[in-house]
């Protein structure tokens, strides 16, 4: 008998005498008795199955309720109840396990990012110390020269500012970056650099060109005592009048008949000018005309002056095997790149390989006598 039915019977047996008298003369209908019995049974089953452990039942250590009697119906009810709880527990354990795995992956990813950041910070610190040493011991200043985007203060500008704050190896120009603005950038660069640093030479190098710094410094040192020196791989390429092609020159008519070539000028991948020429560009910047190509523009600014043009082919070697063969023969190149790409093709992937095969050695620049 369930606790519910016992309570119900106790309540009936303890009814007041007045109520008993009223009920003596009345008989409950059969249907009402049947309904009352069924309700008593189901309420008893509900309470006993979820809230109470009867003397015939026992609670296992895992929290499931089992029956100690052999009633198939009761056994079936308790068995199903136990399986449901077991499935819930297994499901929760599975979810917890997945959550732990996800957390482990997140922690691993963060640890990797932290390791990379520490390595990058260490590399930046090492690079920064080398730059300071070059400036102090050799008087060599190296900077990445860059202006700003068309919308100053944007995401790219903030990223560069953040990197510059860490590495201190940028020269920021008051200039809007753009391919068709390279001539203006060249003019602003020389004007800015000569105002900041008092140097014998000012060099421009594209970032996808491999340079042996020791060889460059050794070469420039030979011309230190000469005035107005312009050093690079001299060329005089065709003036392209056709619209839509790369290196198109809108002012082609200024260079004579169609098919004519430019005057001699250094190729744009790398060149150097002496201090007096950099000062000349800075002073006369407002009236110096700019052509479509920056190397042509620089050449035009110097073509009418008493300038010594030094054509040095070691400043335009090819990538391996060209520069590799020359290095093995003892003729280390100043700069190496691919003409087809106006720099090293796929420079991010290949720069280290070019350096390994054509480099002068990491200690070469420290052995240069100035």
From TrEMBL:
Record-annotated DUF4094 domain positions: 30-120
Alphabetized UniProt keyword annotations: Glycosyltransferase, Golgi apparatus, Manganese, Membrane, Signal-anchor, Transferase, Transmembrane, Transmembrane helix
Organism of derivation: Dioscorea zingiberensis
Signal peptide: none
Entry's transmembrane regions: 32-53
GO terms under cellular component: Golgi membrane
Pfam families: DUF4094, Galactosyl_T
Cofactor(s), by name: Mn(2+)
Class in the EC hierarchy, top level: transferase
Keyword Glycosyltransferase part of the UniProt annotation: yes
EC code: 2.4.1.-
InterPro entries attached to this UniProt entry: DUF4094, Glyco_trans_31
Family named by the database record: Belongs to the glycosyltransferase 31 family.
Molecular function in Gene Ontology: galactosyltransferase activity
Pathway entry: Protein modification; protein glycosylation
Subcellular location(s) per record: Golgi apparatus membrane
Protein name per its UniProtKB record: Hexosyltransferase
Primary location: Golgi
């Amino acid at each position: 008998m369930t606790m519910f039915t016992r309570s119900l019977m106790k309540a009936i047996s303890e009814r007041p005498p007045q109520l008993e008298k009223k009920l003596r003369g009345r008989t409950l209908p059969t249907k009402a008795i049947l309904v009352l019995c069924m309700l008593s049974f189901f309420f008893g089953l509900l309470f006993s199955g979820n809230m109470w452990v009867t003397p015939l039942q026992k609670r296992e250590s895992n929290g499931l309720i089992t029956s100690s009697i052999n009633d198939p119906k009761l056994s079936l009810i308790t068995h199903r109840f136990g399986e449901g709880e077991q499935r819930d527990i297994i499901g929760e354990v599975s979810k917890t396990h997945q959550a732990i795995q996800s957390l482990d992956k997140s922690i691993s990813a963060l640890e990797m990012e932290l390791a990379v950041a520490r390595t990058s910070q260490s590399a930046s610190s090492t690079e920064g110390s080398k730059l300071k040493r070059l400036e102090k011991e050799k008087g060599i200043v190296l900077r990445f020269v860059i202006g700003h985007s068309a919308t100053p203060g944007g995401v790219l500008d903030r990223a560069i500012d953040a990197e510059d704050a860490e590495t201190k190896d940028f020269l920021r120009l008051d200039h809007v970056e753009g391919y068709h603005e390279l001539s203006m950038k060249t003019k602003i660069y020389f004007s800015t650099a000569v105002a900041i640093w008092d140097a014998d030479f000012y060099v421009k190098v594209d970032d996808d060109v491999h340079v042996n710094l020791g060889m460059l410094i050794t070469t420039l040192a030979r011309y230190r005592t000469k005035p107005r020196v312009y050093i690079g791989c001299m060329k005089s390429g065709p003036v392209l009048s056709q619209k839509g092609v790369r290196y198109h020159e809108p002012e082609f008519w200024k260079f004579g008949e169609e098919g004519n070539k430019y005057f001699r000028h250094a190729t744009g991948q790398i060149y150097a000018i002496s201090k007096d020429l950099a000062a000349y560009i800075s002073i006369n910047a407002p009236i110096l005309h700019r052509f479509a190509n920056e190397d042509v523009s620089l050449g035009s600014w110097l073509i009418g002056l008493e300038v010594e043009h030094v054509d040095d082919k070691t400043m335009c070697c090819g990538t391996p095997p060209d520069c590799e063969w020359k290095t093995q023969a003892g003729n280390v190149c100043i700069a190496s790149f691919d003409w087809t790409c106006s720099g090293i093709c796929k420079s991010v992937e290949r720069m280290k390989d070019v350096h390994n095969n054509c480099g002068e050695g990491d200690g070469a620049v420290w052995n240069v006598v100035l």
